[in-house]
Design brief:
The structure is a single chain. By secondary structure, the chain is an alpha/beta fold. It folds into 2 domains: about 5-120, Rossmann fold (3-Layer(aba) Sandwich); about 130-295 and about 330-370, Dihydrodipicolinate Reductase, domain 2, CATH 3.30.360. The chain is about 35% helix and about 20% strand. Strands 14-13-12-11-7-10-9-8-15 form a 9-stranded mixed beta sheet, covered by helices on one side. A 6-stranded parallel beta sheet has the order 3-2-1-4-5-6, sandwiched between helices. Strand 1 (about 5-10), helix 1 (about 20-25) and strand 2 (about 25-30) form a beta-alpha-beta unit. Bound molecules: nicotinamide-adenine-dinucleotide (NAD). Nicotinamide-adenine-dinucleotide (NAD) binds near residues 38, 70, 71, 73 and 122. Nicotinamide-adenine-dinucleotide (NAD) binds near residues 72 and 122.
Length: about 425
């Protein structure tokens, strides 16, 4: 099996792929992060990899064939474009593009490039989602009419200093609906349906000191949304972004004309497959529950990998595509469509439900409409301020004062940690 020379850009989340890359016969020849302390720490694990703090120098690394992008959430596209222009294969963490203009630039660059672009969306590859795809694609549930996907991931204080180190970090400002791929991509993967129109209502919970668990936690407001997508096959999906209501779970339900399949809330690994009495296939009951198993040679590697095996499968799929020349399922059109759903859903939520058409990124007429739209609710790492609000609640639009308060609280938190 051909070894693939790959570099990792962004060594927080990026480092969690080291084992999966090596297991899939990747050769990590270069790593890059502007945080020199983190870079040095990762070099201890990868002493043979060249270390860079600058992306432009990193992609000049001799023999580099592919890059894994795990830098700031909303800034992947410009770096993906640079790599694609050099015909370097790109696998990019979610989300592919932080603005509609970035999505257009990314799809144009991918079309011109000889290299492969793939979104590293891992949730579809979780065991229960692969099982739901197998059953749905088998046809016994008929045609999908409705499906729902929830990525419900409340966070707590101990994590915050790592996850959101300062008041201009993307996690502080991101409308939770921007993180849509974990709820939406599994539904698209299972059914093959893709969104054409989108509308959303905000779910904004005004955190107060009294309602939360720590000084830092209450300063990260919740800004989820409930998003409805009307799809290219007439079905409707209802999804969340990175929601923080209720209890932690990621669950999916597909309703077809003949029955439904879901993973069970509170017992996520368990599948519940139900048929209407007239539609149950030979040998199946009306209600069937079970824990699916991998039927794979690579079962052990998948079991060890993060995110229910998903982190292994994204690397495996990316390398298979490079080696065979096949197009990834989560290609650039798939990726930018999901980004567009997120961005337009946020716009819709700010307007309490305006319906937006999701552009068809294969059509230049649709692309030109958005090529100059760089509106963003997040700070750029170059210091550019947000151009649109990140919440519908005016009292939670961050002010200079509230940002400074967060930074002061973080400094107190870190000092406390150090003195422990
Ligand atoms: N799919 C998943 O399950 C999953 C899980 C966690 C994170 N993620 C995604 O992975 C990405 C990274 O997440 P994270 O938690 O590590 O983010 P982070 O913001 O904590 O870290 C980003 C890293 O990139 C580096 N960086 C950013 N811009 C740079 C530049 N121009 N030059 C050099 N280094 C630069 C930063 O120094 C930092 O170390 C995000 O897109 C996130 O959404 C996905």
């Amino acid at each position: 099996m051909k070894q693939i020379k790959i570099g990792i850009f962004g060594l927080g989340r990026g480092a969690s792929f080291i084992d999966n890359i090596l297991a899939c016969n990747g050769d990590i020849v270069a790593i890059c992060d502007k945080d020199e302390e983190l870079l040095a720490k990762r070099q201890e694990r990868l002493p043979d990899a060249a270390a860079y703090t600058n992306f432009d120098e990193f992609i000049e690394h001799e023999g580099l064939e592919a890059v894994f992008l795990a830098n700031y959430f909303h800034e992947h596209a410009p770096f993906a474009v640079k790599a694609l222009e050099k015909n370097i294969h790109v696998i990019s963490e979610c989300t592919p593009a932080g603005t509609m203009g970035d999505a257009v630039a990314l799809v144009r660059a991918a079309e011109k490039s000889k290299a492969i672009y793939m979104l590293a969306e891992n949730y579809p590859f979780m065991k229960f989602n692969q099982e739901m795809r197998r059953v749905y694609q088998g046809g016994s549930l008929g045609k999908v009419l409705f499906a729902e996907g929830e990525y419900n991931h409340p966070i707590w204080s101990d994590w915050i200093s790592d996850l959101c180190p300062d008041s201009k970090h993307w996690r502080y400002h991101m409308p939770r609906v921007y993180y849509i791929t974990h709820s939406l991509a599994p539904l698209c993967y299972i059914t093959g349906s893709m969104p054409k129109k989108v509308t959303a209502f905000p779910v904004s919970y005004p955190h107060t000191k009294e309602s939360c668990h720590s000084e830092l936690y209450w300063r990260l407001p919740d800004r989820s949304a409930i998003v409805s997508c009307y799809n290219d096959d007439g079905s409707v999906f209802r999804v969340t972004g990175w929601a923080q209501f209720g209890a932690h779970d990621n669950t999916y339900r597909i309703c077809g004309t003949e029955g439904q399949i879901e993973n069970v809330r509170g017992d996520t690994e368990r599948i519940m497959l139900r048929y209407n009495d007239y539609a149950a296939p030979e040998g199946m009951g009306e209600v069937n529950t079970y824990y699916p198993e991998w039927k794979l040679e690579d079962k052990e590697l998948a079991e060890k990998a993060g995110h229910g095996g998903g982190d292994f499968f994204v690397i495996k799929e990316f390398f298979d595509c490079i080696r065979s020349g096949k197009r990834p399922m989560f290609d650039v059109y798939f990726g930018v469509t999901l980004s567009a759903v997120a961005i337009l859903a946020h716009k819709s939520a700010l307007e309490y439900g305006t319906v937006y058409d999701v552009p068809d990124f294969r059509r230049e007429e649709d692309r030109v409409k958005y090529e100059n739209d760089f509106d963003t609710p997040m700070w750029g790492s170059d210091g550019k301020a947000p151009t649109i609000p990140n919440t519908d609640l005016p009292e939670y639009i961050p002010t200079e004062e509230s940002l400074a308060e967060y930074d002061a609280a973080m400094a107190r938190h870190l000092a406390k940690q150090q003195n422990k």
